[in-house]
Amino acid sequence: MARRPATGPRGKLRIIGGRWRGSRIAVPEGVALRPSGDRV
How far apart are CA 12 and CA 23, in angstroms? Predict the structure, then answer.
């Protein structure tokens, strides 16, 4: 099954678990992050 490219606002990271699930936080420019799927 083909995966769709990740979409969403640049410079934002969505928390996917715990109390703050669904919250978005700012990510500083130039920080290298490895994307992960919402479901593991």
Answer: 10
- Global pTM? 0.47
Residue holding tokens 């099954």?
1
Residue 38 is encoded by which pair of tokens? 């919402």
- Report how far Cα 30 is from the mean position of its chain's Cα atoms: 15
Tokens of 22: 């669904």
Structure tokens at 20: 């703050």
pLDDT at 27: 80
Range 5-17 average pLDDT: 75
Whether the Cβ atoms of residue 14 and residue 22 lie closer than 8 Å to each other: yes
